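WARN no homologs supplied; continuing
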Amino acid sequence: MLLQKNWSKTTYETLSDLIERRKSDAATPKYERNYVVTDWDDTSALFDMEDATFLYQLFHLDFHMTTEDFSHILTKDITIVPNSFGEELVKDIIKRYPIVMQQKQTAYNQEWKTSSDYQTFVAQMAYFYRLTEPSIQKNMRGGNDMYLFYNMTESELRNLAQNTLSYWTKEPLTTKTFSFVLNGIQKSCSYRTGLRAIPEQVNLFQTLRENYIDVYVCTATNQILIEEFGCSPEFGYEFKQGEIIGFRLKKNDSAQFLAEVDSSQIETISQGKADYIQTLEQLYHKAPILYMGDNNGDYEALTYPNLEVGIIFDLPRKGKINELKQIAINQTPSDTLYLIQERESILKELEQK
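OK structure emitted
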């Protein structure tokens, strides 16, 4: 049964009506049912699993790389303006990497975390992977922090994801700011930290399945990270492998990850999300009845032909996602019914737990 909880009245009534009209029964063959597709980070769960994994890996220096590997990974698929602050930043990060890794190996009882080299390294890496520095440009579609999984096996990455979830789901939902000074210039950046399952989404997915409506996740985050969140019995989402698609990395002959996106799979961002829906449409012979997202990377999925309902979680975003929000605000006629779902009430409730 769908509970209203923190859904807006309009969203709740629309979802209830959609489920009632599009439900099936146990006798209905799988690909004759209806189905739903959703984004994950900041849509199905709070906040961002990719950022959370990066920060956990960084805080614990959980890297499997030599200094030469690290230098290559750090600079792969980016463009750095010569003689710029960004170039000096990269040099300083690479210089500190062997220092902090050595400190981790030799220091007693995690004393290495109090060193100035470690604290500066963490702040610089946090800033670097935010890619807010104008002299550094990213040249890949997914997050290049995935490259930090270089030389890990799949079991090691799944273990990292599990440790990330164990750590951040117990931490407060807050904003962490990282600052450092390099060559007399101070820089800072912020991350929203903490992870939570969203009870409204857990209940929605459960209700959809009870009514024999299939549910899929399409995420621009590494697929393995979201599988460890969405398939874990701890959080109640009850997804199975095969129902979640995201970015994947290639592996070498030793089954270790390379710093190279697996191009044999769909790149699940922007048009790639629509391409994934198209593969589902070929199986179900119809478009999804619902897509949920929160940012520009969801635009093509939210505008997929014959989509019945699109729910947009209302977060401060720039770009074309606001075109769809405006359609919802103005109630402009469209082939898809767009709804804006505010998230502050959901966030406030989770902050109190």
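The chain has a mean pLDDT of 95.
OK
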